[in-house]
Amino acid sequence: MTSQFFGRSEPVAYAGEQSRDPLAFRWYDKDREIAGKRMEDHCRFAVCYWHSFTWPGGDPFGGETFNRPWMHGDDPMALTKQKADVAFEMFRLLDVPFFTFHDVDVAPEGSSLREFNDNLKAITDIFAQKMESAKVRLLWGTANLFSNRRFMAGAATNPDPDVFAFSCGQVKAALDATHRLGGANYVCWGGREGYETLLNTDMKRELDQMGRFYSMLVDYKHKIGFEGPILIEPKPKEPTKHQYDFDAAAVFAFLQKYDLLGEVKLNIEQNHAILAGHSFDHEIRYAYANDLFGSIDVNRGDDLLGWDTDQFAMNPSEMALMFHEMLQHGGFSTGGLNFDAKIRRQSIAPDDLLIAHVASMDACSRGLLAADRMLKDGALTEPLQNRYAGWDAGEGKAILAGERSFEEVASRALDLDPQPVSGRQEMLEGILNRYV
């Protein structure tokens, strides 16, 4: 049956790299085996509900451009059901294994938390029914604790304990829905957990509140038997001037202080890494180095704009470095590549939604193939290993093993004349380019 919105019935299929059809995969061959796993199992692609089906195409200087049929009407629940029909049809057409959602994007908020919870339970039932006959599963759910005006001063970090309580109620309902739908993870993004000015902010108090919130959430997760990790998504700013989950390192420090290591991991986003002054690869490597890696929001920012533009990831080189890190550590466990990305507000044709996902899935897949070849050849790993070889034997190894005192090492230095060795950055950049 042909989709009334997308105008096609057959799912997008792999056609090979010579294809010029924007609605055919050139690189993403889901059943192709790479490093012992199917490509689909490496990528674990997920369509996000909010940008794809809820964002109207507005910006700070102009309103809606998309005019989706489910965005206008007098019956919010009827519109919600219509939106769900289109969403699950797109999941089928893209043949993706996962989707993700915010609570407010799938259910009307209503006039109270009680009504919102009832609406969310109703749409959860609809999702569960659709999933019985669909391939798609839930990668993760989350609660929107930043859009409503009640959260203007934060959610868990709000100076009003009633807002804190409301946040707990909203997150409980979202986690319950995620658990009911078999979600593999639960994500927290503290969009307003930060400050605009320190003149009216007690930072220690707010961090203690946030620490208590996460401790309670972890306890509840175990109480209901939710087995997936809680994920924090770092972001340095926007909408606040400074957010407490600034980057992977800031979250690591927070988790250490409030004894949450092992319970909470990271959902890393490219655009957020750039806003924090890091590369995407840096944040992934830091997460792995500290046993924090969980999942990825795969998108990109605009090189000329200093805010979160949430564009679809289209850079195979960047994706190659992403997978180069992941393949060395076994890839995803419960996480996946979530397209937290939105088409541009001028991309108003219905199939632009499909084309954007297809192009980005291909860019990721091309990066995966390049990363696999680089690892097999040792293209980047061997030079890196050679650079630090002195620490793997002899005195270097003894120092790290605690077999030398500070005085012994200092005494040995009196007879040394170490000379610098080239870092060969340009050579390594050229090697990367040869594989992509």
What is the 3D shape?
Answer: globular
CATH topology heading of the largest domain: TIM Barrel
CATH class of the largest domain: Alpha Beta
Percent range for β-strand residues? 5-15%
Structural class comes to alpha/beta
> What share of residues is helical?
40-55%
CATH superfamily of the largest domain: Divalent-metal-dependent TIM barrel enzymes
Give the termini separation: 39 Å
> Overall pLDDT, averaged?
97
Rg, Å, rounded = 23 Å
Strand order of the largest sheet: 3-4-5-6-8-10-11-12
Written description of the protein model:
- Belongs to the xylose isomerase family.
- Its EC number is 5.3.1.5.
- It catalyses: alpha-D-xylose = alpha-D-xylulofuranose.
- This protein is of the alpha/beta class and 436 residues long.
- It has two domains: 317 residues, TIM Barrel; 53 residues, no CATH class.
- Helix content is 44%, strand content 10%.
- The protein is built from 16 helices and twelve strands.
- The protein has an eight-stranded parallel barrel.
- The longest helix has 27 residues.
- It starts with 32 loop residues before the first strand and ends with a helix.
- 39% of the residues are buried.
- The mean pLDDT is 97.
Describe the protein's topology:
Elements (H helix, E strand, L loop, with lengths): L32 E2 L2 E2 H5 L1 E4 H5 L22 H19 L3 E5 H4 L6 H20 L4 E6 L18 H20 L4 E4 L5 E2 L7 H22 L5 E3 L9 E2 L4 H10 L6 E6 H6 L4 H10 L3 E5 L18 H13 L8 E3 L11 H27 L3 H7 L6 H7 L5 H8 L11 H11 L1
Parallel strand pairs: 3-4, 3-12, 4-5, 5-6, 6-8, 8-10, 10-11, 11-12
Antiparallel strand pairs: 1-2, 7-9
Family: Belongs to the xylose isomerase family.
Enzyme class: isomerase
GO molecular function, one term: xylose isomerase activity
